[in-house]
Amino acid sequence: MKKCMYAITIISAAGSLVSGMLLLNHYYPDSGFQLLCGGGFENSCLALSISGYSTVFGIPIASWGLLFYLAVLFASLIADYAGVDYVRALAAFLLPFSAAALVADLALASILVIIGKFCSLCVVTYVLNILLFGAALYLYRIVKPAGERPLIKLFRETGNFLNETASTRASAASFILFVFLLAFSVFSTSYILRLKTMKQEISKSEIASFVKNFYESKKEVFPLPESAMALGDPNGVKITAFTDFLCSYCYKFFQVEKRLFVKYGKKISISYYHYPLDSACNSSVTRTLYKNSCIASRAVHAAGKLGILKEYLLSHFEDYGRIHSAYDDAVSLDVLRKASHDSIGMNKFIEIMNSRDTGDTIARHIDAARANNINATPTLIIAGRKISGLPPVEFLEAIIDSELMAGKK
């Protein structure tokens, strides 16, 4: 029986840890704490959190899981310390609740299949719940009373035991109170995290108004040169982005891009065009806003030429807080090493980065920006219409949805 109790304790502790990780990933999908989530453009945790199926009654499913595992952990520790009668009470408590957890897992897994998303950490909790149910069954076999209908008899005996003396009634009341306080703590923590990460809510009318104004603006033809820097499916909704790779709002746009790619996948594509706000290579700016962003443009262009644009951008922006104010040639190579662990194409990368052709390409992009009255980053072009600055992601999603609907007609 001791081994079974240890197993229940370990499983519930592991479940608490995984649920805590899921809760953090729910509110901080870009925190870098992405164990088993995939991160970047294949972030399964982010995909699930924005799907609309990640909460129950407005509370993240991870919070419900954390409450369940912590309650089981506390009950198992108390039962192991208090003796065999409390172990029977644990079995009576754990068997139906672990079975209910499996039913909930089945429903959640079905939803994941239906919406076409995969959550690795969720699968870990499914496995833990199967193990916990197995341990509960084993514990039940050890402590079940003799005779007919032993399960009902166990529930009845547990109820009688917990109501037998003032001491056992106090224990039962204390556990119930603990669960209520635990629920309050877990849900309060979840609410605080929500408040800390919650941005200003955008109403449906605001989104509709933006989309209306966007499509009422004049559609233009933007003559642009080719770009070696593109992500996504060329047949998807096309987004053109003039950007400075050290620009703070361009960094925020990259966070938006990750959400868009997680949500739409191959239904969109993004092509990048250089517009470094650095007078070293851009004569259109009167003063340098981001020192050495010309070097960053050269580096990203080289990554695009080598076919590692996605990996390079992820490496670049994941370390943005450290490198953006101290960027130079050495930093660009550090980013390459993190993007390509075996440093494939290091010499070729340097050659392309410093080539005259790369400089000419950046100049052509800057000329194209000037010809199209683009003078800020990021500037987006979608469906022949220009958006200066970074709009809320909800606005971009509404435009993409409109374009996808139009493509179906």
Descriptive notes:
- The protein has 409 residues and is of the alpha+beta class.
- The protein folds into 2 domains: 196 residues, VKOR domain (de novo design (two linked rop proteins), Up-down Bundle), CATH 1.20.1440; 205 residues, Glutaredoxin, CATH 3.40.30.10.
- The protein is 65% helix and 7% strand.
- It has 16 helices and 7 strands.
- The protein has a 5-stranded mixed beta sheet. Strands 1-2 form a two-stranded antiparallel ribbon.
- The protein is elongated.
- The chain starts with a helix and ends with a helix.
- The model has no long low-confidence stretch (mean pLDDT 90).
Mean pLDDT: 90
CATH architecture of the largest domain: 3-Layer(aba) Sandwich
Strand order, biggest sheet? 3-5-4-6-7
The coarse silhouette is elongated
The span between the termini is 65 Å
Question: What's this, in brief?
Answer:
This protein is α+β, with helices and mostly antiparallel strands. It contains 16 helices and seven strands.
Using brief descriptors, characterize the structure shown.
409 residues, 2 domains, de novo design (two linked rop proteins), Glutaredoxin, five-stranded mixed sheet, alpha+beta, elongated, two-stranded antiparallel ribbon
Give the arrangement of secondary structure elements:
Layout: H1 2-27, H2 44-49, E1 55-56, E2 59-60, H3 61-82, H4 84-115, H5 120-143, H6 150-162, H7 166-197, H8 204-216, E3 230-232, E4 237-243, H9 248-264, E5 268-274, H10 293-306, H11 309-318, H12 320-323, H13 329-339, H14 346-353, H15 356-371, E6 379-382, E7 385-388, H16 393-408
Parallel strand pairs: 4-5
Antiparallel strand pairs: 1-2, 3-5, 4-6, 6-7
